[in-house]
């Protein structure tokens, strides 16, 4: 894809597989094509049936190629799920040039050096995310290139994931006839593309409501400081209606998507859903009753999210909350979130024509993250994780940041996340 001047991003979800192709023109993201297909081989971010996943990927690619008028050859893939772990990392390298001027090669070497850690056998390094650099005794450096020094250090985070899950995703992509350009942490890319620099600096929460899970991310002082997977999503809302209406799953899905509201008070007394229940009887359910069930589930979900975020230790989320994901398209959900969270909440959906739906947020976020940060250029010389010696174990993402890692004093001075950092380092 890179040879043609555009990049493709793939979001392998439990409900649907989304593919977005785009390019960067004059600093503006231009979406060229999108493809979407039902997903039957994925559960909570993990491929459980490679054959079905391959067919879904092929179908999404065919849709995108029809609009693009060209072949999609390679993709970046959004990666997330309960298997993902994030831990602080630290790299050290000596400056090689005789004149002691720091170059791109030195930056790449110090990022590579951070990967020399012993990991559990079942885990693999996905990415190293720099937060700041230290040149000799000068800390908090954002872009060390061009500076003079003898010792270069990098402070950041290492993202690791299950070898089994990563291998299944990689094999699915390869069998679909595509080349894997790399994995990108989905919630990081989404946050960096959906929120402003000021929001990420002051504090903002990202709530990505998927089919079977909800990913909760907290950004503060320009960095991703907390991530948690809540095992509740749009599927749970649908199943609540299955029991309430005593109907088939597909009928409950139609009731939710065509008549459902996140707030019962918004319901129209003249609206309702006619269906045949599980006993073969013709039934009718008012919109108010459908919305009552949905509101109860969503209110519970936001309450769980709020309880988690309050334990993170961030003083305040001045930027409020961002909602995205397929299930976030339910009318009234923004108002309910604001009511429960007690802070301003807005619904994020890509603005480009063809992908103006919250379900495309992650794929578009990865695309923008890659293009804006020039990630596909800046990371291409990094050593592959499997070439690295694989020593201390990583820390799961569902914990509160400690005083010595995410909030390290050197990281506090960094005002930019990885995307904007790498844009400054390697962007042209």
Identify the notable features of this structure and list them briefly:
ATPase_NBD, single chain, 428 residues, 5-stranded mixed beta sheet, disordered C terminus, cell division, alpha+beta, 18 strands, Cell division protein FtsA, Nucleotidyltransferase, domain 5, globular, 13 helices, cell membrane, cell cycle
Tell me the structural class.
Answer: alpha+beta
Low-confidence stretches: 374-428
CATH topology of the domain at 2-81 and 165-191 and 357-377: Nucleotidyltransferase, domain 5
Q: Describe the sheet with the most strands.
A: 5 strands, mixed
Strand order of the largest sheet: 3-2-1-6-11
The total count of helices amounts to 13
CATH class of the domain at 2-81 and 165-191 and 357-377: Alpha Beta
CATH superfamily of the domain at 2-81 and 165-191 and 357-377: ATPase, nucleotide binding domain
Helix content percent band:
25-40%
The termini sit apart by 19 Å
Pfam family, one: FtsA
Membrane topology: Peripheral membrane protein
Protein name: Cell division protein FtsA
Subunit structure: Self-interacts. Interacts with FtsZ.
């Amino acid at each position: 894809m890179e040879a043609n001047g555009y990049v493709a991003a793939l979001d392998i979800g439990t409900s649907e597989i989304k593919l977005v192709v785009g390019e960067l023109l004059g600093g503006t993201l231009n979406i060229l094509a999108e493809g979407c297909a039902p997903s039957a081989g994925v559960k909570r971010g993990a491929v459980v049936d490679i054959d079905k996943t391959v067919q879904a990927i092929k179908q999404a690619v065919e849709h995108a190629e029809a609009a693009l008028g060209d072949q999609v050859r390679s993709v970046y893939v959004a990666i997330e799920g309960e298997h993902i772990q994030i831990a602080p990392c630290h790299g050290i390298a000596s400056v090689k040039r005789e004149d002691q001027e720091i170059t791109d090669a030195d930056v790449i070497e110090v990022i590579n050096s951070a990967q020399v850690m012993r990991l559990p056998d079942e885990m693999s390094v996905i990415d190293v995310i720099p937060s700041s650099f230290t040149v000799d005794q000068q800390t908090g450096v954002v872009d060390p290139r061009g500076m003079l020094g003898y010792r270069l250090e990098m402070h950041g985070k290492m993202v690791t994931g299950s070898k089994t899950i990563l291998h299944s995703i990689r094999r699915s992509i390869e069998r679909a006839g595509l080349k894997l350009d790399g994995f990108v942490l989905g919630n990081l890319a989404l946050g960096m593309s959906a929120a402003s620099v000021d929001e990420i600096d002051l504090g903002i929460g990202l709530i990505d409501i998927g089919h079977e899970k909800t990913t909760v991310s907290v950004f503060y002082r320009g960095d991703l400081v907390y991530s948690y997977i809540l095992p509740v999503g749009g599927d749970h809302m649908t199943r609540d209606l299955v029991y309430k209406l005593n109907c088939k799953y597909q009928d409950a899905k139609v009731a939710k998507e065509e008549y459902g509201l996140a707030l019962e008070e918004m319901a129209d007394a003249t609206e309702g859903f006619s269906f045949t229940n599980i006993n073969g009887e013709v039934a009718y359910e008012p919109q108010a009753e459908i919305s009552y069930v949905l509101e109860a589930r969503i209110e519970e979900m936001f309450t769980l999210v709020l309880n988690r975020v309050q334990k993170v230790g961030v003083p305040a989320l001045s930027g409020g909350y961002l909602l995205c994901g397929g299930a976030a398209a339910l009318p009234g959900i923004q108002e309910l979130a604001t009511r429960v969270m007690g802070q301003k909440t807005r619904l994020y959906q890509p603005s480009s024509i063809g992908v103006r739906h919250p379900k495309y947020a992650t794929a578009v976020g990865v695309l923008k993250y890659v293009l804006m940060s020039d990630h596909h250029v800046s990371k291409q010389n990094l050593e592959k994780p499997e070439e690295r010696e694989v020593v201390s174990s990583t820390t799961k993402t569902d914990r509160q940041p400690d005083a010595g890692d995410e909030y390290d004093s050197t990281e506090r001075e960094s005002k930019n996340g990885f995307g904007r950092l790498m844009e400054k380092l390697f962007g042209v």
